[in-house]
Specification:
The chain has five helices and six strands; from the N terminus they run αααααββββββ. The chain has about 180 residues and is of the alpha+beta class. It folds into three domains: about 45 residues; about 50 residues; about 60 residues, Roll (Nucleotide Exchange Factor Grpe, Chain A, domain 2). β4 and β5 form a beta hairpin. The chain is elongated, with a radius of gyration of 41 Å.
């Protein structure tokens, strides 16, 4: 057996594998490596903390958003409660009233109060009569012959339509004018 073969056999033996290998490192290199390891540990800690803060912020924002959606109508409902109170008082007064005009006047006051609350919330009625029919704002219930209104214009409104700022809440239910049968073009 040659010396090369002997060295190979020694390396393959379990005793050779268990023998620790030592590396000589300069003190500067060791200090530099230790400083880099400490910096890496600090950065890892900061990263984990930042991720936790981000996750907590995301959860808090999601919770606040859900609460905002859940209680979005709270302010409007608080303004509607006095209207409901006045309506209930009007109903009680109507049961015992002898003057129908006074009851009607009371309900007109409640209606005015309700309209004010809706205006403050951004709800506006759609003025349809006399305007051209607009399928985006009006719901046609039918046509009526009319000489006073131009063809295709709203001549009567059965139910008011409403919009919230620039968004349609409910279309106005209308009847659209058409020329009398003998005068159609």
């Amino acid at each position: 057996m040659s010396s090369k073969d002997t060295k190979k056999e020694e390396m393959k033996s379990p005793e050779a594998a268990a023998t620790p290998a030592y590396v000589v490192v300069s003190n500067d290199l060791f200090q530099s490596t230790a400083a880099l390891a400490a910096q890496a540990a600090e950065l890892k800690d900061r990263l984990l903390r930042s991720q936790a803060e981000w996750d907590n912020s995301r959860k808090r924002i999601q919770k606040e958003k859900e609460e905002a959606v859940r209680y979005a109508a709270e302010a409007l409902l608080e303004k509607l409660l006095p209207v409901l109170d006045n309506f209930e008082m009007g109903v009680q007064a109507a049961r015992t009233a002898t003057d129908a005009k006074a009851v009607a006047q009371g309900f007109e006051m409640v209606q005015s109060q309700l309209n004010q609350v809706l205006r403050e919330a951004g709800v506006e009625p759609i003025d349809a009569v006399g305007h051209p029919f607009d399928p985006h704002r009006h719901e046609a219930l039918g046509h009526h012959e009319s000489e006073e209104h131009p063809e295709g214009h709203v001549m009567t409104q059965l139910r008011k339509g409403y919009k919230l700022k620039d968004r349609l809440l409910r279309p106005a239910s209308v009847f659209v004018a058409k020329p009398p049968e003998g005068k159609q073009a």
